[in-house]
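Researcher: Sequence recovery benchmark, item below. Answer with residues only.
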């Protein structure tokens, strides 16, 4: 099987500014643990404050880019993955290009002349993280870039697509183009619920693309928010996963599979009107560095097996393995080679 360019991701490339903070810091900027939000005016001084911290780290991130990099790492096949998104023409942008090249991902960035490369504050307290994204250039992605022949060629070549829900706030028309292509060509299209605010405030664009999703990823908080927004009157994650999997589909070629992670609790997989639970690899608390990128890594591990047409059990196992590796390190980073069996 030819693996070159088999998996394509699109999303918001962000430079993670990661630091260990305290509860006082969270209160000061009105942020909650285990949440992801877009920066508002009140958060602007926060970035300055984080940069002065002794433990601050800069790591190329952004949800989709993290997942694609992890899939690439798990596959160990040069050029198996591609990625598109928008960066600025600046130092952070150059850093991003260098980092992605090293990761072996074939990146086609749209470079915006006017906005700086987007950043994401990763506030870590007791190993748990809270994300505040300042999209900047990432918010400037245009479908014109996607339609350029050299970029659309990546879409034509790919057989699997993954886009985090965060990209719905930036370029829903780009998502729609890729989703419709996947349905027309019987390719696999997957997305992530990504954050409660996406399910709540971007409901319309999310619903428009949902019929095209062959795989829906998310965590328990996002699933419960989705349920509440749609008036399902249930907090039961297994029920919610089933309901999402049964949402009408644009193409009948592939059935929809919903995959919901629940931190240390078993991963929920809903397909064919049935739910399966898969236990995760438990980690002693003292080995936990931070949970930033855990969900992204799970998806990356999962996709690395999916593109090899492995059974769902193997996909989940690889997802759990990758997440377990990532939470023992700062941000979404990994050792040189995986030892997944």
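Model:
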């Amino acid at each position: 099987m030819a693996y070159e360019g088999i998996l394509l991701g699109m999303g918001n490339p962000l430079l993670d500014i990661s630091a260990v903070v305290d509860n006082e810091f969270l209160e000061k900027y009105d942020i909650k643990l285990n949440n992801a939000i877009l920066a508002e005016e009140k958060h602007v001084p926060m970035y300055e404050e984080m940069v002065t911290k002794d433990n601050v780290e800069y790591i190329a991130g952004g949800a989709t880019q993290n997942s694609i990099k992890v899939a690439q790492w798990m596959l160990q096949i040069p050029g198996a993955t591609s990625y598109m998104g928008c960066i600025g023409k600046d130092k952070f942008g150059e850093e991003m290009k260098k980092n992605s090249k090293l990761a072996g991902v074939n990146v086609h960035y749209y470079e915006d002349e006017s906005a700086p490369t987007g950043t994401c504050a990763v506030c870590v307290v007791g190993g748990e993280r809270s994300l505040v994204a300042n999209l900047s250039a990432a918010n400037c992605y245009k479908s014109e870039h996607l339609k350029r022949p050299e970029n659309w060629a990546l879409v034509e070549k790919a057989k699997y697509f993954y886009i985090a829900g965060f990209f719905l706030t930036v370029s829903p028309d780009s998502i729609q183009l890729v989703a419709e292509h996947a349905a027309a060509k019987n390719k696999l299209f997957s997305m992530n619920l990504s954050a409660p605010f996406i399910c709540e405030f971007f409901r319309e664009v999310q619903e428009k693309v949902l019929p095209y999703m062959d795989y829906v990823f998310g965590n328990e908080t996002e699933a419960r928010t989705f349920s509440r927004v749609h008036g399902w009157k249930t907090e039961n994650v297994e029920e919610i996963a089933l309901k999402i999997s049964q949402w009408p589909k644009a193409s009948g070629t592939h059935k929809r599979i919903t995959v919901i992670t629940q931190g240390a609790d078993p991963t929920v997989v809903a397909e064919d009107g049935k739910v399966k639970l898969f236990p995760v690899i438990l980690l002693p608390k003292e080995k936990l560095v931070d949970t930033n990128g855990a969900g992204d890594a799970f998806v990356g591990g999962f996709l690395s097996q999916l593109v090899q047409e492995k059974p769902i059990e193997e996909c989940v196992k690889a997802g759990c393995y990758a997440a377990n590796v990532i939470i023992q390190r700062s941000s979404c980073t990994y050792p040189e080679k995986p030892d997944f069996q």
